[in-house]
Amino acid sequence: MYKSIIIGTGPAGLTAAIYLARANMKPLIIEGPQPGGQLTTTTEVENFPGFPEGIMGPELMDNMRAQAERFGAEFKTGWVNNVDTSSRPFKLSVEGLGELEAETLIISTGATAKYLGIPGEEDNVGRGVSTCATCDGFFFRNKEIVVIGGGDSALEEASFLTRFASKVTLVHRRNELRASKIMQDRARSNEKISWALNRTPVEVIAGDNGVTGLKVLNNETGEEEIIEVSGVFVAIGHHPNTGFLQGQITLDENGYIATQPGTSETNIPGVFACGDVQDTRYKQAITAAGSGCMAAIDAEKYIESLEHSAVTL
């Protein structure tokens, strides 16, 4: 029996672990196959406060993990197959660990960026391929880049990236975009944005120093073309890692955990969510960490209320 179990070890989960461990709650943190979350796949992080010279993503996550361990947090590796929130204590079935019980549960399993699955794509993440304009746009100052996608997010990222890049080419497999009219009008009025519509990405081209181009199929002519760029931003969405919940916690229409406004509380008392698994808007390391702090404080207050009720009874 644990007072609190945290599922996931990105910035949200590790921040929650630090706060709960300092509160002497001895949390258990379950690490999945990618401890540290998406930041372990990035190179230099320059927008996390406190590191004026930047810090490598894996190093930042290692530091946060060590900080949690320093205060007594316990880490175990396993794959959560399902959770039972129908009664207390909550029960978790974890491959490699068996069945665990907890008074509170913090879910920080994050969201996974969708990739196209084309050759050269995932091999060059951090070498010119990115799924986060806010995180990596600065590295492409005065360079030509492409953004792949046709929704609001793609056009928003393309517009943002014009602050840094000399030219942004938006690549979409259809002639028509899914984005709202206002986003399309805004993008089309931006002189730095060019259009490569009705083109299907085929391969990310890279050399020794990273990305050099994107090979696309012209759907009208059937011929392949190469767009010479230094960066490829994939903006086709994310999918939250909530499959293991199996309908026990309220999700929104896109599968993200629904939390009460201004809190980390879910529809199940004692179950809290933080980080990208419940964040459909910001998706930044610093906002994930902040929500992890919220979840830890909410969990601590919840346990205090249980203990108070037990004493008064």
Automatic annotation (TrEMBL):
Domain of life (superkingdom): Bacteria
Gene3D superfamilies recorded: FAD/NAD(P)-binding domain (3.50.50.60)
Enzyme class: oxidoreductase
Bound cofactor: record note: Binds 1 FAD per subunit.
Keyword Oxidoreductase tagged: yes
Enzyme Commission number: 1.8.1.9
Keyword annotations from UniProtKB, A to Z: Disulfide bond, FAD, Flavoprotein, NADP, Oxidoreductase, Redox-active center
InterPro entries: FAD/NAD-bd_sf (IPR036188), FAD/NAD-binding_dom (IPR023753), Ferredoxin-NADP_redctase_2 (IPR050097), Pyr_nucl-diS_OxRdtase_2_AS (IPR008255), Thioredox_Rdtase (IPR005982)
Required co-factors: FAD
Domain spans labelled FAD/NAD(P)-binding: 3-292
Reaction catalysis annotation: [thioredoxin]-dithiol + NADP(+) = [thioredoxin]-disulfide + NADPH + H(+)
GO molecular function, one term: thioredoxin-disulfide reductase (NADPH) activity
Oligomeric form and interacting partners: Homodimer.
Family: Belongs to the class-II pyridine nucleotide-disulfide oxidoreductase family.
NCBIfam families the record matches: TRX_reduct
Name under which the protein is recorded: Thioredoxin reductase
Gene name as annotated: trxB
